[in-house]
Backbone:
C-alpha cells in the first residue's frame, strides 16, 4: 500500500473499496466484542468459515467479525446482509441451519429472532426491538459495518474524510471554533467543555505538546470505552489527530488498560495501518502535518484514570495523582502542555467536523449536547451497550430500552457514574440524564455506567461494596482518602454485620464531607457519593440495620436467618446431607432443625429443599422469631 | 516573567511580602505565622499528602480550600489559616491519624487542636505514611533504600533490603525525620531479619 498523499487520493481509494463491494452479496456479520466472545462468538466464526468452505461458497459470501453490536446479554450476535436479519444467542450448532435456511433459501430461522418481552412477537427488523428502537446510535452505528482490524472498512464508511477536511480546508483556529460551537463536553465524566480544554493547551507555553486518549475505564460494570476502542479504533485515532492539529501537537498517547487485551490489539493494528496509509506519522495525507501515536498500557490502577496520575504513569512512574493548581492542560506529561480526553470525546470529533457543530447541537439538552454511550447493566431485562441522546430520562432508559426490571421485581435504585457515582431512587426516575441535572440530585455522569438495582438489593451493602472498592483503588497517598475511607469502610462493615451503633450514620456523613473537602484528587473528592446519596434517599434502610438488626432486602448475611418450618418439613434428609457445615440436625422421620451457631447462611438448604415442601424460610432478621430448641425431636408421620 | 519579583498578600489580616514562586506555606513561615504540617520538609519537593496545611483563600468573590505547601502566592491573595472550616478538617485528620501513632508530636498537636481521644479504633502501626523517609532517601540521598508498597488502605513502607543492607547503617538520617518513631522500630526489626522477610 502506498501512502495516501492527498484528499483526492483518499476519495479514490474509498471509491475503489466501495466499488469492490456488491450490495447484493450475502454477508455474515458476527459480533466479536468481548461480551459475545465470552459467550462463544469465536467458535461461531470458525464454524461459519468451515461451512462456507465445505459448501464451496468461498468468495461468494463475505464473513465479517465486528466490534460490539450492543445487546450483549443476547449474544453471540449475528446479522445477515443484505436482508438485515438479526439473530440472537447464536451458537455454533445453529450455523448449519442459518446457512441452509437463510443464506441459501433466503428464509428465517424463527427461533433465533428476538422475541418481544411483552407482545411475545418475533422481531424481524431492528426497529421492532425495543432495546434498539429508542436509541440514537451515531457513534456506534458503524460498528456493524466495520471489522476493526481492517482500515478499509473504516474508510468505506467515510472514515478519515474529516481529517482530510481539517488538514486541507480548515485552520487550527477554525477547528477549535467548531468544537467550541458544538459545545462538546468531556465524556469521561467531568463534562468540561472540550474546546476550552484544547484552547488552554494550544495557548500554553512549552513544547512539545501532547494529546492523550484516556481509555483507563475501570468502573465495575462499565464497558463503553472498551467497546468503542475495540470496535472502531480508527474513529478515536481520527479524532485524536484532528485534536492534535487544532492544538499544535505532534505526539499522542493512547492510555489503555492492559486488562483490555482486545482493545490494545485493535488499537495497535489500527495505528500500524493508519501509518502505512499515510494517515498517521510524517506528512499526513501530504499536508505536511506530522503526528505520531504511542500506546501506553495501564497497569491496572483505577486511580490512573485521574489526569495527573495518568500522566505520571506515562512518565514511567507510579500512577499517583499530584497536588495541582496548574491544570495538566498547561503542565502535564514532563511538565509540558498535555490535553487528555476520553475515548468517546475523541470519537465525537470526526462527526462534528464532517456533519458540523449545528448537527451535533441538534441532539441533546440545553447544556449537554449530542449522544452518550452507556453500559446498561443490573436487574433489567435488556442489558448491553446503549447510545442515547443526552437528556433521556432514567425511566425511559430502564423501562423502554432496558425492558423493565427482571422477573417482575420492584425497582429500588439506579446507580450512575461509576463507583463514586450516586444512587437515584424511584421518585427521581424522571430526571433527565445530562451533566447538570445529575449534579443537582447528587449524582454524576461518570463515564456512563448505569447499574439498575431491584428490591432484592441492599443499598447499605452496595454502598459498602463501593467504599471497599475505592479504599483499595485509592492510591493511599493523602490522609483523607486513605484513612477516611478506611474508617468509613469499617463503619459500613459493622452496620452490615449487625454491629451498627447509634450515631454511625451521622459519623458517616461527617467523614464523607471531610473526605470530599480535604482529599488531594477527584477520587477522594467524589468517593463518598455512594454513601451520601444512599443515606439521603435510603436512610430508613440504614436505621433498619442499626436499630432493628434488620436487612430489608435480606442480603446482609449476619442479619438473616434460615429457618425450617416444622409443619412443612417432611424430614427427607436432603438439606441435612447438603449443608456444608453440618448445621442441620434431624434424621429419618425427625423434623430438621438448623443450628444457628453453625449456619453460615449459604442458602444451600433453601436451594435443595424440594419445591413441593418449601419448608426452608429465609428470614431477614438476626434472630429467630419462633425459636425451636435444637434437641426437639418431633416425629413426622409419613 | 521575572521570578524574583515580590508580591503582597494578606494572611490572617496581615499584609505579607513574599517572593514570587513561594508557596503560601513558605510565605507564612517566613512571616512567623504557624501552619501545621506532617509531610512538608524544606529540602524536599512539596508532597501535598498530609493535608494538614490546608488553608482558606479568597480570590475575587470565590473562597476555597487549598493546600498551602503547593499553592503559590499571588498578588492580592487573601489567606486565612485558622478558620472554622480549616480547623474542622485538621481536627479530623488528627483524629484519623491518632489511632495509628498514639504518641509523639502527633499527640501533642492533637491535644492542641482539642482532640483528646479518637472515635476510631486504635491500630498502632506507628506510621502515618507522610513519606518523609521515602522522599528524603530518594531526593536527597538518591538511594531509594525505602519505598512505599501497596495501594489504598494497604499502603505501607518497606526497606528495599538489597539497597538498605549496604547504605542504611551508615546514614540513619531518616530516623530524625520520622514524626512517629516508625523508622527506628522498622530498622531494628529489619536488622534481625533475612532480606526476604524485611517487608512489614
Residues:
Amino acid at each position: 500500500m502506498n501512502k495516501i498523499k492527498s484528499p483526492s487520493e483518499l476519495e479514490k481509494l474509498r471509491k475503489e473499496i466501495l466499488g469492490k463491494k456488491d450490495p447484493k452479496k450475502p454477508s455474515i456479520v458476527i459480533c466479536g466484542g468481548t461480551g459475545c466472545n465470552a459467550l462463544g462468538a469465536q467458535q461461531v466464526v470458525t464454524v461459519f468459515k468451515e461451512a462456507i468452505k465445505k459448501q464451496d461458497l468461498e468468495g461468494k459470501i463475505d464473513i465479517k467479525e465486528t466490534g460490539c453490536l450492543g445487546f450483549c446479554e443476547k449474544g453471540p450476535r449475528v446479522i445477515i446482509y443484505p436482508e438485515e436479519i438479526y439473530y440472537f444467542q447464536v451458537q455454533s450448532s445453529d450455523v448449519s441451519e442459518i446457512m441452509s435456511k437463510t443464506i441459501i433459501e433466503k428464509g428465517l430461522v424463527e427461533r433465533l429472532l428476538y422475541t418481544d418481552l411483552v407482545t411475545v412477537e418475533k422481531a424481524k427488523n431492528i426497529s421492532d426491538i425495543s432495546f434498539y428502537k429508542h436509541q440514537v446510535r451515531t457513534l456506534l452505528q458503524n460498528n456493524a459495518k466495520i471489522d476493526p482490524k481492517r482500515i478499509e472498512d473504516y474508510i468505506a464508511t467515510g472514515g478519515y474524510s474529516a481529517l482530510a477536511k481539517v488538514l486541507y480546508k480548515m485552520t487550527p483556529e477554525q477547528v477549535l471554533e467548531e468544537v467550541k460551537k458544538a459545545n462538546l463536553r468531556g465524556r469521561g465524566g467531568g463534562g468540561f467543555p472540550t474546546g476550552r480544554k484544547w484552547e488552554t493547551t494550544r495557548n500554553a507555553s512549552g513544547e512539545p505538546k501532547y494529546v492523550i486518549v484516556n481509555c483507563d475505564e475501570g468502573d465495575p460494570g462499565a464497558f463503553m470505552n472498551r467497546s468503542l476502542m475495540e470496535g472502531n479504533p480508527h474513529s478515536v485515532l481520527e479524532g485524536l489527530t484532528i485534536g492534535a492539529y487544532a492544538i499544535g501537537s505532534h505526539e499522542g498517547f493512547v492510555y489503555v488498560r492492559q486488562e483490555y487485551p482486545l482493545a490494545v490489539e485493535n488499537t495497535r493494528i489500527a495505528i500500524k495501518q493508519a501509518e502505512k496509509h499515510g494517515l498517521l506519522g510524517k506528512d499526513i495525507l501530504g499536508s505536511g502535518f506530522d503526528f505520531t501515536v504511542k500506546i501506553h498500557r495501564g497497569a491496572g490502577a483505577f486511580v490512573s484514570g485521574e489526569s495527573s496520575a495518568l500522566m505520571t504513569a506515562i512518565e514511567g512512574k507510579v500512577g499517583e495523582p499530584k497536588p495541582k493548581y496548574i491544570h495538566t492542560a498547561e503542565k502535564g506529561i514532563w511538565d509540558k502542555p498535555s490535553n487528555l480526553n476520553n475515548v468517546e470525546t475523541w470519537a465525537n470529533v470526526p462527526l462534528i467536523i464532517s456533519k458540523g457543530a449545528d448537527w451535533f447541537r441538534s441532539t441533546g439538552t440545553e447544556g449537554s449536547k449530542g449522544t452518550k454511550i452507556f453500559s446498561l447493566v443490573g436487574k433489567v431485562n435488556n442489558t448491553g451497550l446503549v447510545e442515547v441522546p443526552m437528556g433521556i430520562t432514567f425511566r425511559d432508559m430502564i423501562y423502554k430500552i432496558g425492558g423493565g426490571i427482571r422477573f417482575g421485581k420492584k425497582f429500588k435504585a439506579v446507580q450512575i457514574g461509576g463507583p463514586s457515582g450516586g444512587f437515584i431512587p424511584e421518585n427521581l426516575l424522571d430526571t433527565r440524564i445530562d451533566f447538570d441535572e445529575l449534579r443537582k440530585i447528587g449524582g454524576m455522569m461518570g463515564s456512563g455506567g448505569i447499574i439498575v438495582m431491584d428490591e432484592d438489593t441492599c443499598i447499605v451493602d452496595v454502598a459498602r461494596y463501593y467504599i471497599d472498592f475505592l479504599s483499595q483503588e485509592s492510591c493511599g497517598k493523602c490522609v483523607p482518602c486513605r484513612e477516611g475511607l478506611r474508617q468509613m469502610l469499617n463503619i459500613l462493615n459493622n452496620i452490615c454485620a449487625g454491629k451498627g451503633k447509634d450515631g454511625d450514620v451521622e459519623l458517616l456523613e461527617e467523614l464523607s464531607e471531610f473526605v470530599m473537602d480535604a482529599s488531594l484528587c477527584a477520587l477522594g473528592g467524589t468517593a463518598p457519593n455512594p454513601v451520601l446519596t444512599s443515606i439521603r434517599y435510603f436512610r430508613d434502610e440504614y436505621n433498619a440495620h442499626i436499630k432493628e438488626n434488620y436487612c430489608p432486602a435480606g442480603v446482609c448475611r449476619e442479619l438473616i436467618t434460615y429457618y425450617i418450618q416444622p409443619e412443612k418439613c417432611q424430614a427427607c434428609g436432603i438439606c441435612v446431607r447438603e449443608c456444608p457445615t453440618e448445621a442441620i440436625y434431624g434424621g429419618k422421620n425427625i423434623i430438621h432443625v438448623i443450628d444457628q451457631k453453625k449456619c453460615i447462611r449459604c442458602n444451600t438448604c433453601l436451594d435443595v429443599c424440594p419445591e413441593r415442601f418449601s419448608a426452608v424460610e429465609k428470614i431477614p432478621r438476626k434472630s429467630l422469631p419462633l425459636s425451636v430448641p435444637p434437641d426437639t425431636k418431633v416425629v413426622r408421620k409419613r | 516573567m521575572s521570578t524574583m519579583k515580590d508580591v503582597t498578600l494578606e494572611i490572617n489580616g496581615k499584609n505579607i511580602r513574599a517572593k514570587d514562586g513561594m508557596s503560601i506555606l513558605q510565605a507564612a513561615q517566613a512571616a512567623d505565622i504557624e501552619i501545621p504540617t506532617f509531610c512538608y520538609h524544606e529540602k524536599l519537593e512539596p508532597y501535598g499528602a498530609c493535608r494538614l496545611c490546608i488553608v482558606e483563600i479568597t480570590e475575587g468573590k470565590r473562597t476555597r480550600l487549598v493546600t498551602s505547601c503547593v499553592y503559590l502566592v499571588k498578588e492580592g491573595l487573601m489567606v486565612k489559616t485558622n478558620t472554622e472550616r480549616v480547623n474542622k478538617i485538621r481536627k479530623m485528620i488528627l483524629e484519623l491519624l491518632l489511632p495509628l501513632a498514639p504518641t509523639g508530636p502527633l499527640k501533642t498537636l492533637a491535644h492542641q487542636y482539642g482532640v483528646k481521644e479518637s472515635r476510631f479504633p486504635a491500630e498502632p502501626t506507628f506510621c502515618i505514611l507522610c513519606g518523609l523517609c521515602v522522599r528524603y532517601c530518594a531526593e536527597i540521598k538518591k538511594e531509594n533504600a525505602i519505598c512505599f508498597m501497596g495501594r489504598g488502605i494497604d499502603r505501607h513502607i518497606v526497606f528495599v533490603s538489597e539497597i538498605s543492607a549496604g547504605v542504611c547503617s551508615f546514614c540513619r538520617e531518616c530516623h530524625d525525620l520520622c514524626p512517629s518513631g516508625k523508622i527506628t522500630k522498622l530498622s531494628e526489626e529489619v536488622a534481625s531479619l533475612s532480606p526476604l522477610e524485611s517487608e512489614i
Observations:
- The beta strands of chain B are 6-11, 14-19, 54-59, 62-67, 78-80, 146-149, 156-159.
- The interface with chain A takes residues 46-52, 54, 65-67, 69-72, 85, 88-89, 92-93, 96-97, 100, 119-121, 128-129, 131, 148, 150-155 of chain B (CB under 8 Å).
- The helical segments of chain B are 24-30, 84-97, 105-112, 132-140, 161-171, 182-191.
